From TrEMBL:
The lineage of its organism: Eukaryota, Ichthyosporea, Ichthyophonida, Sphaeroforma. It comes from Sphaeroforma arctica JP610. Gene3D superfamilies: P-loop containing nucleotide triphosphate hydrolases. Residues 20-304 form the Septin-type G domain. Residues 200-230, 310-329 are annotated as: Disordered. This is Septin-type G domain-containing protein. Keywords: GTP-binding, Nucleotide-binding. InterPro entries: G_SEPTIN_dom, P-loop_NTPase, Septin. It holds the Pfam family Septin. It comes from the Eukaryota. GO terms for molecular function: GTP binding. Belongs to the TRAFAC class TrmE-Era-EngA-EngB-Septin-like GTPase superfamily. Septin GTPase family. The keyword S-adenosyl-L-methionine does not apply.
Length: 329
């Protein structure tokens, strides 16, 4: 049985009192050939129609695709951002600047809307998550991996993954995960942790007691919270193909020696990554983007404009909190 996709968002919306509509922007970043497009199509069970890659490009560039999706009463306006050419040139110095500039440009766009004298409906195109793909042939993080994640981690939620992990043996996969985890710690790179952040409280909001706790206090579907740290980096296998296996329909990759099932946790961490993004913590990715990453940018820009080193950021209003919850455009 193929799992449902965006209908997993329903408990999050219900628990937060939101309309069942989301606006979500995800960036996939990594060298070509690591299965980024296949992963996105697999995660959302949709074959996105992307523009052809510009083979004449001499540097990384931004490519986006936006799709309105609906499933079981849940509506999702999804934008997928990728950077063709990233890491594919002889000299990759500054290859991450394209992604960084895009994230900052969306912050700037959102701030301009907030500051407009006559503000209409705010369109939120800020990047809520960056899924960073690491080669299965690596022995750890490359200098480019470290430079990229270090430069982005204070402005977007970073989720590191090992692409095409089905090319590794079980022992190889375990060793690579340990090596990458070690390198992440040594480099001071902090992957997204839904249980790390605390939201500012607002006494005027009836939900303030709940909101002032961990961002991930909402444990969607009523299950126990999952310790995602043990899976970082997520070693994933993705596939658009479906097969019949022992009376079941499965997604995966078929080899002469057997089948690698994408949704089988003994074969891949895909199911845990799907749970993180769709089943439990999309609200948290959106909320931390707004309250943590965007607020840092907003404070820096306004402090420079006012000629001050720091400014005080007012507590979020109930209206603003509702906007974030509902994925308001």
């Amino acid at each position: 049985m193929i799992p449902n996709t965006i209908s997993h968002l329903y408990p999050q919306a219900h628990n937060h009192g939101a309309r069942h509509r989301y606006r979500f922007v995800v960036m996939v970043l990594g060298r070509s050939g690591l299965g980024k497009s296949t992963f996105v199509d697999s995660l959302f069970a949709h074959n996105f129609q992307r523009e052809p890659i510009d083979k004449n490009a001499t540097s990384p560039y931004i490519r986006t695709v936006t799709q309105d999706m609906e499933e079981r009463g849940v509506n999702l306006k999804l934008t997928v951002v990728d950077t063709p050419g990233y890491g594919d040139f002889i000299d990759n110095t500054g290859a991450h600047n394209c992604a960084k500039a895009y994230v900052q440009s969306q912050f700037k766009r959102f701030l301009s809307q907030e500051m407009a004298p006559k503000r209409g409906r705010v369109s939120d195109t800020r990047v809520h998550a960056c899924i960073y793909f690491i080669s299965p042939n690596a022995r750890g993080l490359s200098p480019l991996d470290i430079a990229t994640m270090t430069s982005l981690q204070d402005m977007v939620n970073i989720i590191p993954v090992i692409g095409k992990s089905d090319t590794l043996t079980v022992d190889e996969r375990h060793s690579l995960k340990l090596a990458i985890s070690r390198d992440l710690q040594r480099a001071g790179i902090r992957p997204f942790d839904p249980y790390e952040f605390v939201l500012p409280a607002d006494d005027s909001d009836d939900d303030s007691a709940d909101e002032s706790q961990s961002v991930a206090a909402n444990e969607a579907n009523g299950g126990e919270k999952e310790d995602y740290k043990q899976h970082i980096p997520f070693a994933i296998t993705s596939s658009r193909d479906k097969y019949e296996l022992n009376g079941r329909t499965v997604r995966g990759r078929k080899y002469e020696w057997g089948m690698v099932e994408m949704d089988n946790e003994s074969h891949s961490d895909f199911i845990h990554l799907r749970n993180l993004i769709l089943r439990q913590h999309m609200n948290d990715l959106i909320t931390t983007t707004n309250y943590i990453h965007y607020e840092k940018y907003r404070e820096l820009v306004l402090s420079k404009a006012l000629g001050k080193s720091t400014i005080s950021t007012p507590a979020p209003t109930p209206q603003k909190r509702a906007m974030v919850r509902s994925g308001n455009e």
